[in-house]
Q: What sequence folds into this?
């Protein structure tokens, strides 16, 4: 589906055409605004310049970012008000760190190893990126200071409209209007008692309000109220937005009600879907969001995930975690190999091992009801005969834990226990929650299920505001714990199937294989463009003028643990337009990827341009394609599927395409000499 993005931004054209093909999709003609929540945060580390720019590159015009004030009075991009640990390499909170300290932190490694080195940006830097793309930042301001906002705008040297903060009180709106009179803002405060109160809307619009934002729940609760609210907002000259929705079907439902825009982690999918196209998307993406194997003898992630941390109640004595070889601890090796593991103490109620899940919001607000927890653990027989907590979903350890080994060595929760955990042995435990059932596995074997009806077992996701987006391992509120040795821990944002868990088997000294299989970059240097279609696993590249097409060095950057069926680095001849390969994740799952070269002519290509004519456009039953040499012709739909292929001979070719469905198509015409000619066609009735 991302093919359409390139049609929008670059207007594909045939090399032999004097003029460009018109774009079949113009977002400017679609009265809907997808607002990139924390930037393009589904795939890029939130609130970084990279996440913002990747959204803007795809034609998105508004990025929502969170801003807070450093100890020396600088607005920086960061979400969690109570900790910087989840998304950075730092500690404490924003206002305990100077701008110099914050800017030196790694703000990308938690998302994937490839993003290590992404920094915490200042608002000034982010505004300058918005200016570069003729776009706007919508600010979720954690500490509102209109004077500092004005200073940032002035230091950035950008148009005043690039900055649009959320405001919750009229007093703040008045001050902001005085300090930044030419900057718009968003009303994020209380709703009017009467949605037909014209003066309520006009008072705010007169102060510079351009958008009124409400939650999707508020907008869907009473449709008559919503209709009146939207009507009055529009009559006052303002828009109505909703926050934060990731399901494109729900986003479309809101748009059909008259909502003008929606904050989302999936902005490009949302923009395409509401504007009448069917994006080839999977929601939610099935990923590993946290992986730890302790080989570095610390709490850092292994490939993906925030750092683990010790939960310690105020003034409580910390129970430290130890790291050592299994032989040094005097326990059995993992899979016959002496390896570094973590030794977890028998936690008292004031302690626990906390993991940020980093789950993207799905359909249930700030909580997630579908996930998988995996762990490789060893427990000494001396600790048998008691309840032993493995998982505690209360991040403050305020109630009974949620998954136990029972005194009889069975495993479970909610009074239902199955199977048998053998002590003095390494095991791989899996805990799967699908919203209605808790499913339990030991070394790949299904032990049993427990039906649940409450939200007790749900986890807070990245929408949570309190900084407690995750779970505790091995903690319990009344000390039903034991000393546990841990080889690896892993979190996935979906309910794994029994067959997939069976493939993982038992504990392994190398840790738990992850299922991520992304390609983050081609590693090709000096490109005019590199853009990743995450939905269709296609990377579009555009060469800079004068570069060779026949021998392009590449160095693919893959997800941690992933492998590829071609050399990961080498030289490829891109004159035929595409490089196709398969990426296999560490757990054995795989997907196909393509690197596609966009309308580039290298210096070693032929000097003589081909003559190409494709008509009529729109077409109904027949296409005529005139070429001056033999070529291969394809028609690709907006889902990226090749629906028609033909071998063309020199001269005019008549192609029978009457059976194709009505819609928009990309034609791809490749000559054996190396030219790749592309264009857009519309099929009508």
A:
């Amino acid at each position: 589906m991302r093919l359409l993005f390139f049609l929008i931004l670059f207007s594909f054209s045939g090399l032999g055409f004097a003029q460009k093909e018109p774009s079949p999709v113009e977002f400017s003609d679609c009265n809907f605004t997808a607002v990139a929540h924390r930037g393009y945060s589904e795939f890029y580390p939130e609130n970084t310049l990279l996440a913002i720019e990747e959204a803007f590159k795809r034609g998105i015009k508004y990025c929502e970012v969170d801003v807070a004030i450093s100890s020396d009075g600088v607005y920086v991009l960061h979400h969690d008000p109570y900790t910087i640990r989840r998304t950075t390499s730092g500690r404490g909170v924003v206002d305990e760190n100077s701008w110099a300290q914050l800017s030196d932190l790694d703000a990308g490694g938690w998302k994937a190893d490839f993003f290590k080195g992404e920094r915490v940006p200042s608002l000034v830097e982010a505004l300058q990126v918005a200016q570069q793309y003729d776009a706007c930042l919508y600010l979720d301001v954690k500490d509102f200071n209109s004077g500092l906002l004005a200073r940032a705008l002035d230091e950035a040297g950008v148009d005043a409209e690039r900055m649009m903060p959320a405001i919750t009180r009229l007093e703040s709106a008045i001050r902001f209007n005085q300090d930044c009179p030419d900057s718009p803002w968003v009303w994020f405060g209380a709703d009017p008692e009467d949605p037909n109160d014209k003066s309520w809307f006009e008072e705010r619009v007169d102060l510079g309000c351009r958008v009124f934002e409400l939650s999707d729940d508020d907008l869907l609760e009473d449709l008559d109220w919503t209709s009146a609210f939207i009507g009055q907002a529009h009559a006052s000259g303002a828009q109505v937005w909703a926050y934060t929705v990731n399901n494109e079907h729900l986003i479309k439902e809101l748009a059909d009600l008259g909502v003008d825009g929606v904050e989302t982690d999936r902005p490009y999918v949302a923009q395409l879907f509401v504007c009448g196209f069917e994006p080839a998307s999977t929601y939610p993406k099935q990923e590993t969001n946290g992986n730890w194997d302790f080989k570095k003898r610390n709490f850092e992630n292994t490939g993906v995930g925030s750092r683990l941390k010790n939960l310690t109640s105020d003034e409580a004595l910390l129970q430290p975690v130890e790291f050592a070889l299994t032989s040094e601890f005097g326990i059995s090796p993992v899979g016959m190999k002496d390896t570094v593991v973590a030794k977890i103490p028998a936690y008292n109620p004031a302690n626990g091992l906390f993991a940020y899940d980093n789950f993207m919001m799905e359909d249930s607000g700030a909580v997630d009801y579908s996930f998988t927890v995996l762990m490789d653990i060893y427990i000494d027989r001396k600790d048998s005969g008691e309840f032993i907590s493995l998982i505690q979903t209360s991040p403050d350890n305020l109630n009974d834990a949620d998954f136990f080994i029972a005194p009889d060595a069975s495993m479970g929760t909610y009074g239902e226990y199955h199977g048998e955990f053998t002590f003095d042995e390494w095991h791989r435990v899996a805990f799967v929650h699908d919203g209605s059932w808790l499913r339990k596995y030991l070394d790949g074997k299904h032990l049993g299920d427990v039906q649940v009806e409450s939200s007790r077992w749900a986890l807070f996701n990245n929408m949570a505001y309190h900084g407690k987006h995750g779970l505790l391992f091995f903690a319990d509120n009344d000390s039903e714990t034991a000393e546990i040795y841990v080889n690896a821990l892993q979190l996935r944002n979906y309910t794994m199937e029994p067959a997939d868990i069976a493939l993982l088997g038992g504990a392994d000294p190398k840790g738990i294989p992850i299922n991520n299989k992304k390609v983050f970059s081609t590693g090709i240097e000096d490109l005019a463009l590199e853009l990743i279609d995450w939905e269709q696993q296609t990377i579009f590249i555009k060469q800079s003028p004068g570069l060779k097409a026949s021998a392009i060095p590449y160095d693919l950057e893959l997800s941690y643990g992933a492998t590829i069926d071609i050399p990961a680095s080498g030289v490829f001849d891109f004159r035929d337009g595409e490089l196709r390969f398969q990426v296999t994740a560490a757990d054995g799952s795989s997907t196909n990827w393509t690197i596609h070269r966009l309308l580039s002519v290298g210096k070693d290509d032929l000097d003589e341009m081909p003559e190409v004519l494709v008509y009529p456009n729109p077409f109904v039953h027949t296409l005529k394609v005139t070429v001056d040499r033999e070529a291969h012709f394809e028609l690709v739909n907006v889902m990226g599927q090749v629906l028609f292929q033909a071998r063309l001979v020199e001269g005019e070719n008549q192609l029978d395409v009457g059976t194709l469905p009505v819609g928009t198509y990309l034609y791809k015409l490749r000559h054996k000499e190396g030219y790749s000619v592309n264009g857009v066609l519309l099929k009508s009735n």
In short: Residues 1-26, 600-609 have pLDDT under 50 and may be disordered. Residues 519-597 form a domain with the Immunoglobulin-like fold (CATH 2.60.40.2340). The chain has four domains: 1-25+609-685, 33-274, 288-504, 519-597.
